[in-house]
Specification:
Chain lengths: 386, 326
């Protein structure tokens, strides 16, 4: 009998641990990618960037006594340092006596859910006027979130926000609109290949390497790129092939966009996919939609050496040492990066407004395009990380 | 003698399968038959190959080592972190190998002395090493030196790239393949011609009988795990050489690719039978399959679908062989 019980417990524990292993696969490998399934649906205001200036100038009310707490998903990584820098800037611009950057906390790692839940509780117990939150696990954080709601403390989501939060808990989100970001990559690439894709005599090919077809943020970056490229070149002139999710038929199209996605999120498999695309004779440009895709494009290129200004044009996304080096050395034309400084800035701005009872809505914190020329500039450098 | 024959049959079948696959992809794969693609196949099989050679010893004892994938990445992450702190590359590489062997030793002691099932012991080590990799690196990715940077010399152990090579060989010379074959030959000799190998094979077919005949089974079983750990660490070095940037939290799943290669190569999961040459062929089949499928234009979900069938078929061959023998 004892044995049976023991066996049962062991089996249960194993099943649980296996499930836990599987579940953690994704976030661990893409540490800084935002998986904002929730915010994506609501962030439709692409015009947010244009109105940002006005908002700042209209911020004439006295906010000095407003107290904001910020709970991020980390604090050591350069990404979160940049977010904190933005929060600090916003605190200064809005004239807060107590700068939100001094109340900026985050867990040691993105798997440390209990630590973050503790931090959220502490932040709420300090009874702030508003709280900025990027939750690791919404379900685990429900208690403090409900506590904040009961106390009437507005929560502003930032970065990946608070997915599936209870109705009314989160008043607004400050996050990257990955679809818009993908479109930006298409715009930048189009400038460089316009001649080659405008009614070409022979078929030309644009490659797209993507980590996977399940994560919403990565799908958005890919779809945004594809949609804008089709729009720029002209509908009916472009066919998309390589993956059922993105495929687009166009008879007689002279421009083909080929989407390559590895069967498993493993370097070896992604390099193979990239190598297959880079080996095509009619390839003129390639886009990678996150750090993983780009580092493997770069590894594949080490075997082929086909990327460069007068060769195949490459546009990337995110940072990472290999990609930064590739941009610096001209192997990549440039890359898109999220703007963590703006994420921090907008999050605090939204929180202050919500605390002051002003109406708030989701904002797209925008993206930046960096090249060898501007990557060391004051605006770009804080957004990049090795 | 009978067992040897059936192993030979499966090895032959594996070689034929490998040739058929390669010819198939050469005909139907768009741009598959190129020097750079062959190099790409080599690139993708080094780390799986080293892990597979090592774990073959454990599987022959009738055990399993699920920790090799994460040990591979964990050791490389530790080595890379040390290099960033200023430790010379040569020393880093030695430390990586030692750490791998120590993880193997821990696995071996848990199984042979403490009597834990290998599946559970190494599952635990898998989690420990995966966590440790994140702890050591503060969850940040680690990039090994590339190009002409200091310390990047170690890359030429696995792939020799130089401006002086002719254009057609720009992808580099696969020196890692030479290393893989040399080590495979050495380990095959150890397995088949030495006392060590005989004891490991014997305790795989019947541990109790081997123990009763006066062999120190604890020692030899532990040694099999140490070999597995050290080879996993070597796999980590080759991984760093080829892919440059390592992310903590990865490595899960590598072990299954390696174990699949071992089984396809004719080593029995129930122990007592196995060969290093078979393992190498099995790993080659997996690598050709994984490289070739994207080249024939198959979408990722179809690739998974087909790879699954290949695995089941391979294990079924193993079962059939065992029945014949039994």
């Amino acid at each position: 009998m004892k044995r049976k019980v023991l066996a049962l417990i062991l089996t249960g524990a194993m099943a649980f641990s296996l499930a836990a292993c599987g579940g953690q696969d994704e976030p661990a490998s893409t540490t800084t990618d935002t998986d904002n399934t929730e915010t994506e649906d609501t962030t439709d205001d692409a015009a947010a960037d244009d109105t940002a200036e006005e908002e700042e100038s209209s911020a004439s009310g006295d906010y000095s006594d407003i107290k904001i707490q910020v709970v991020a998903k980390g604090f050591q990584h350069d990404f979160w340092k940049a977010v904190k820098q933005g929060a600090q800037q916003a605190g200064e611009d809005l004239g807060l006596k107590e700068n939100p950057a001094d109340n900026f906390v985050g867990p040691k790692s993105e798997t440390d859910i209990p630590e973050q839940v503790e931090q959220i509780k502490n932040a709420i117990n300090k009874n702030p006027d508003a709280i900025c939150l990027a939750a690791l696990d919404t379900t685990a954080s429900l208690d403090p979130i409900n506590q904040a709601m009961a106390a009437g403390i507005p929560i502003v989501g930032f970065d990946s926000g608070v997915p599936d939060a209870p109705e009314g808990a989160v008043v607004a989100n400050a996050a990257t609109d990955n679809y818009v970001a993908g479109a930006m990559a298409a715009d930048e690439m189009y400038k460089l290949i316009e001649d080659k894709v405008t009614d070409p005599a022979e078929t030309v090919r644009i490659g797209v390497v993507s980590q996977e077809a399940n994560s919403q943020s990565i799908v958005d970056r890919t779809q945004g790129f594809l949609d804008r490229m089709v729009e720029l070149i002209g509908e009916g002139k472009v066919a998309i092939e390589g993956h059922d999710k993105f495929n687009l038929k166009a008879d007689g199209a002279k421009v083909i966009m080929e989407v390559g996605i590895p069967a498993n999120v493993q370097d070896a498999e992604c390099v193979t996919v990239a190598q297959k695309i880079l080996g095509q004779q009619d390839l003129i440009a390639v886009y990678g939609s996150n750090e993983f895709a780009n580092k493997n494009i770069i590894t594949a290129n080490q075997n082929l050496n086909v990327l460069g200004a007068d060769k195949i044009i490459a546009v990337g996304f995110d940072s990472g040492k290999l990609q930064l080096d590739a941009v610096r050395d001209g192997i990549y034309a440039g890359a898109i990066t999220q703007n963590p400084v703006q994420i921090g800035y907008k999050a605090v701005e939204l929180a202050v407004k919500a605390a002051a009872g002003e109406p708030v809505e989701d904002v797209d914190t925008g993206c930046l395009y960096y090249t060898a020329e501007n990557m060391d500039s004051e605006e770009i450098a804080p957004c990049l990380y090795e | 003698m009978k067992a040897k024959n059936s192993l030979g049959t499966q090895k032959l079948a594996a070689v034929i399968a490998l040739v058929v696959l390669f010819v198939f992809f050469s005909i139907f794969g768009d741009g598959f038959l190129k020097y750079s693609t062959v190099i790409s196949i080599f690139d993708s099989l080094y780390y799986i190959g080293f892990m597979a050679i090592g774990v073959t010893f454990v599987i022959i004892t009738g055990g399993i080592d699920l920790s090799i994938g994460t040990v591979c990445i964990c050791c490389a992450l530790i080595g890379g972190t040390l290099f960033q702190k200023g430790v010379p590359m040569a020393l880093c590489l030695i430390i990586i190998l030692i750490i791998g062997a120590l993880f193997g030793l821990a696995n071996g002691l848990m199984v042979s002395v403490m009597g834990l099932p290998a599946f559970i012991a190494t599952l635990g080590t898998m989690m420990i090493t995966r966590g440790l990799g994140s702890i050591v690196t503060n969850t940040a990715s680690v990039t090994f030196p590339t190009g002409d940077a200091e310390g990047a010399w170690y890359k030429s152990i696995f792939k020799l790239q130089s401006q002086n090579l002719p254009q057609s060989m720009l992808a580099g010379i696969p020196t890692g393949f030479i290393l893989l074959v040399v080590l495979a030959i050495i380990m095959a000799i150890i397995l088949n011609k030495t006392r060590v190998g005989r004891y490991i094979l014997a305790l795989g077919s019947n541990k109790e009988a081997t123990r009763l005949s006066g062999v120190n089974v604890v020692k030899w079983e532990t040694l099999a795990f140490v070999i597995s750990g050290a080879f996993a660490a070597l796999a980590g070095i080759s991984y760093a050489a080829i892919y440059s940037t390592l992310m903590p939290g990865t490595g899960n799943g590598f072990e299954l690719d390696a174990i699949a290669g071992v089984v396809i190569g004719g080593t029995s999961l129930s122990g007592g039978v196995g060969s290093i040459s078979g393992t190498l062929i099995g790993v080659f089949i997996m690598a050709v399959l994984k490289t070739g499928l994207p080249f024939v234009g198959l979408q990722p979900h179809y690739q998974l679908f087909i790879t699954g069938f290949v695995l089941i078929f391979a294990v079924f061959m193993d079962v059939l062989n065992r029945k014949k023998r039994g």
